[in-house]
Amino acid sequence: MVSDKVTAYIEKHEHWKEELKKLRTILKKTTLEETIKWGAPVYVAHGKNVLAIAGFKNHCCIWFFQGVFLKDPNKKLINAQKGKTKALRQWRFESFDEIDESIVLAYAIEAIANAKAGKEIKPEKSKKIELPVELKEAFKKNAALKQNFDVLTPYKQKEYKEHIGSAKQEKTRRNRLEKCIPIILEGKGLNDKYKNC
């Protein structure tokens, strides 16, 4: 089944359009069903997210949600966030010619088989992050700031809490807060500008 939303996603990524079309054509040869999740094309089988494709500034990629279980005989997969990501593996392409249909298809078929077999590392629940004192103080002075923060998704709230609260020095925490206030007031997440570039 072809998703119009996936078509729209590919069409808007002018720089990587041909590469994304090629990946999609390869994936259509499998039993995967396509959909959009988290703003990107995601391919599902056996009730599991198996893989996704996306275009970024310097590359397009395919990532495997449980890529850690793939044999990777061609050494294509990377862990984009070592120490943070346990299961997800990414395969980056910087040109159309780098996309080898037979290899991509083999990896996709293996990923589908792994999903069917129930191979999965579940993400660990992260501990609750407290609201930094500086942000609490800013909320007392600016009701609109608190309102806009409260309507953000829990994930986006967490990004702000971590970014501001992780600085060791008070001066750095205050500087980060000052830079974040306009973004929060726009109703945007801290890293929204990097998504779908």
From TrEMBL:
Q: Report the residue ranges that make up the YdhG-like domain in this protein.
A: 16-112
What InterPro entries does its record include?
YdeI_bac, YdhG-like
Q: Which Pfam families match?
A: DUF1801, OmdA
Gene3D superfamilies to which the protein is assigned, alphabetical = 3.90.1150.200
Q: What is this protein called?
A: YdhG-like domain-containing protein
Gene name linked to the record: ydeI
